[in-house]
Amino acid sequence: MTIYYSLTFLLLAAEMVTFCLLVSPLPFTVRKKLFRFLSESPIIAKVAYGLKISFIFVGILFLDALQRMFRVTAETEMAKTGGQGMHDVRTETNFAARKFYAQRNTYLTGFCLFLSLVLTRTFSIILDLIHTQEEYAKLKKVVGAGAKGDQSKQIEELKKKLAASEAKDRDFANLKKQAAQQAAEFDRLASKYNEATGTVSDKKSD
């Protein structure tokens, strides 16, 4: 394996480790700090810029490996159909090895490019999820504070209504007491009046 395909393999291994780290079940606080560091760090931004350039070269390697794989496959099929030199074991082994290396390089570079797209999309989705969870937590706090404020207002209103009802009950009790006292006083005065009237009438009759 040449040096650039070895570097491509190392890049693929690093992508696999990064993907496992991104999808690992980390606590929300740790995940938020990690993704905030990855999205806001200038060092990570420079590394990402370098990786974008390297992926351009990986794309060129992918096109070259794909073209070479098609060419080797066509040469192998042509040799099989023509029957030229395919009776030699060394020739067959040479064609098989060339085909294997071409396919290996194609799959290596192709998976490296594909995993880079998966990593980019996964990172953006998880970052949006973290922002959504933060907004939900803030909204929940605001709604909770508003609900507490509404409950306190309702409690104050109920206290006022209860105080007004108790005041009305006291006024009604006082009014009832005054009415009873007035009725008793009226009965007393009526009795005295009747007694006085009866006495006067007796004197007149005499």
From TrEMBL:
Membrane topology label: Multi-pass membrane protein
Pfam families assigned: Bap31, Bap31_Bap29_C
Keywords of the record: Coiled coil, Endoplasmic reticulum, ER-Golgi transport, Membrane, Protein transport, Receptor, Transmembrane, Transmembrane helix, Transport
Cellular compartment(s): Endoplasmic reticulum membrane
Entry's transmembrane regions: 6-28, 49-70, 107-130
GO BP: any one term: protein localization to endoplasmic reticulum exit site
Main subcellular localisation: endoplasmic reticulum
Record domain Bap31/Bap29 cytoplasmic coiled-coil: where: 153-206
Family indicated by similarity: Belongs to the BCAP29/BCAP31 family.
Name the record gives this protein: Endoplasmic reticulum transmembrane protein
